[in-house]
# Entry
Amino acid sequence: MWTYNGICVDDSDIDISEYEGFVYVIRNRNNGKLYIGKKTLISRSRKKVKKKNGKGVKTQIIKKESDWKKYWGSNIYLKEDAEEFKYENIDRQILHFCKSKSEGSYIEAYLQFKFHSLVNSEKWYNRWIKITVNGSTIKNINEEELKKIGIKLALILRIT
# Structure
C-alpha cells in the first residue's frame, strides 16, 4: 500500500487525476535501507489509426493508468529484499505528487543528491542518478516546496 501524509492512497479519496506522477521513498524496516524514486501514474502508448477520410494514418496517444499500485521500485536489490521479506515491514510513502515528468525527475534527483543516496550503500538502495529535465515544465517547483519535501524525508530518516 502507498501512503501520503499518513493516508492510504491506493483506495482513498485523494484525487490523483491532475497529477502526472509522484516522488516516493521506500523504507525497509527489516534492515533500515531506503530507496528514493519516482513513478508515473499514467502510461502512454502510441497507436496508428486510419484517418476518417480513409486516406493515410495518424498516430493516436492512448492513456491508461500505470502499474503504480503494484510498483516496488526499479532497484533489483530492493525488489529481492521485498520478495525475501514477503513485502512485510516495507513502507511505500509518497513524498510529493508531480504535475509533470520533469518535476518528478528534478525532485527525485534533488533528494538523492541532498541525502547522499549514492555514497552510503549501507543505508540506501539507490545506485544511479539519471535525469532528464525540461526547465519549462518545472514551474511549480520553488525552494520552499523543495525544503518541505526534504523535511518529510528527513523525518522518515530519523525513524529508521
Notes: Strands lie at 2-4, 7-8, 21-28, 34-40, 42-50, 57-65, 90-98. The longest strand covers residues 42-50. The chain has one domain: 2-41+70-158.
